[in-house]
Amino acid sequence: MKLVSRSEWGAAAPTGSYTRISSTRGVKIHYEGSAVPGGLRGDHGRCAGHVRDIQRSHLNNRSEGWLDIAYSFVVCPHGYVFEGRGLNRKNGANGNSALNSVHYAVCAMVGTEGITSPTDAMLDGLVDAIEYCQAQGGAGGEVRGHRDGYATSCPGDELYDWVQRGAPRPGGGGGGGTPDPQPSGDGAGVYTVQSGDTLSAIAGRFETGVAQVAALNGIANPDLIQVGQQLQIPAPPFPGREHFVLGAHSPYAKQLQTWLQAGDWGPPYRVGPSEDMEQLDLRKVQALQEYYVGDLGPADGLTGPLTWLYAFQAAHGLRGR
Where are the beta strands (DSSP E) in the chain? Predict the structure, then answer.
């Protein structure tokens, strides 16, 4: 992490006392929402001055009454993370006092003119800042855009799409949203054969094929399964994270929601599962993740391979609760 302290970028002293916070639910990503000089991209020596300009603008904004730069951290096109208010201090950027307390605010030097798209180095720096807030500042696993909590266009469509994809590092590295990992082994649950069960009935109950179950368990003759025999039941293949972000539309979204409904996770559906991913669906995912937090990690509402597997297993009685 290329951290630039307040003294290193020449920060002015705050005009008042910070409100201390010990932890947050996570981090919200911002952009500047105004013109950002394009020359910053080719001259890192100008970036500290730009952060001073941001601070000066915020201190002079009488309508907001900011006591300092509003952001917790600012990330430049070269991947350097400039300390704003820093860790364990309430920010001023998320929209109101309550919102400022529950997420850190990390701003990218991206705007509506000049630099309008994040560089790969900037995305790396944003993930560095997120992980720093999580490791040192008590931030939880949520990574959101400013617009997720407040009516605004921030952080812009391109950065918001990146957030919705789990805030990944360029090149496929880990993301700040701490998406859950691939399941170990074959991603199967264990079912004990009951009296009257046939392999085809079992396969139908668990939304898989007879051949898949037979092959996984080394069964040569499906007619010879026995009561009490333990069968490995494979989950449907994970189709990809893009099907489960806010606003996604696909039959996979409805499949996941059906499992979440069967498992009675989170707030109930008023109508029922659909092919659209909405805020309620993310809250239901989060409820499942909170229950299995020891395995799934931070409850961020983002569905990865292991969350998909656990939702399937819990809905079908293949996982204890």
Answer: 2-4, 24-31, 35-36, 73-75, 80-83, 103-108, 113-114, 139-145, 188-192, 230-234
